[in-house]
Amino acid sequence: MGLQLRGRFMLSDGGEFRCQTIDVSVTGIAIQAHVVANLGERVIAYLDELGRIEGVVVRRGDGWFAINAQTSQNRINRIAQKIEALSSESIEALTVAPIAARIRAATLRTDFGQDFAVQVTDETGGSAKVLADIKLLPGAHVTIDGFEPPSAVTV
Questions:
Q1: Is there a contact between 57 and 37 (Cβ–Cβ < 8 Å)?
Q2: pLDDT of 7-25, one tens digit each?
Q3: Which band of pLDDT confidence, cut at 50, 70 and 90, is reported for residue 126?
Q4: With b meaning 16 or more CB within 10 Å and e meaning fewer, what string describes 25-54?
Q5: CATH 2.40.10.220 at 6-95, yes or no
Q6: Half-sphere exposure of 149 toward its Cβ, with a 13 Å CA cutoff?
Q7: In the chain, which segments carry CATH 2.40.10.220?
Q8: Which residue from 3, 26, 65, 94 has the highest number of Cβ atoms inside 10 Å of its Cβ?
């Protein structure tokens, strides 16, 4: 199904990159990104609406690759339900503009005083999802501007 979902993916070397799906099914996902995974490479995708999906790259082209999802039958059933719910939403809810409208720029500051430009993609329940082209060590303490008061977070 041609769902366009935003997210990020992690390669086997630990590199993380932003992406958007081209096609989604319970058995696989076609992903569009600036970095393309190698054939046979293990990839973990984190899609905003579907969650974490692991798989191995089975096809690739210029600016895209496809993974064969490797997950339990229970997880396949939950993914199928989510895909069904997403496909029954209006086309307007699945276009890029409404998704992009929820994204806002922010500054992430480490305890060492380093500032990084990031994008906040979701702010619900006192937490936030942040897209960043940086890697932080687990346990790093950061603050994110734009929250009242500024939010202190442990990665």
A1: yes
A2: 999 999 999 999 998 888 8
A3: low
A4: ebebbbbebeebbeeebebebebebbeebe
A5: yes
A6: 2
A7: 6-95
A8: 65
The structure's pTM equals: 0.53
Give the tens place of pLDDT for each residue, 137-149.
777 777 887 654 4
Q: How far apart (Å, rounded) are the C-alpha atoms in residues 49 and 86?
A: 8
**Hey, what are 79's tokens?**
């993914």
The residues pairing with 76 across neighbouring beta strands, listed in sequence order, are none
Amino acid code (one letter) for 2: G
Q: Helix (H, G, I), strand (E, B), or coil: what is residue 91?
A: helix
Write the single-letter amino acid at 74.
Answer: N
Instruction: Collapse the DSSP code of 94 into the 3-class scheme (helix H, G, I; strand E, B; otherwise coil) and give the result.
Output: helix
Rg (CA), the chain: 17
What is the pLDDT averaged over residues 58-75? 85
- Please report how many Cα atoms fall inside a 13 Å half-sphere around the Cα of residue 89, on the Cβ side: 13
Tokens 């790259």 -> residue: 57
pLDDT digits (tens, 9 = 90+) for 90-125: 344 444 444 444 677 888 888 778 888 888 777 665
Q: How many CA atoms lie within 13 A of 46 on its CB side?
A: 11
Alpha helices in 6-148 (DSSP H): 73-88, 91-94, 96-102
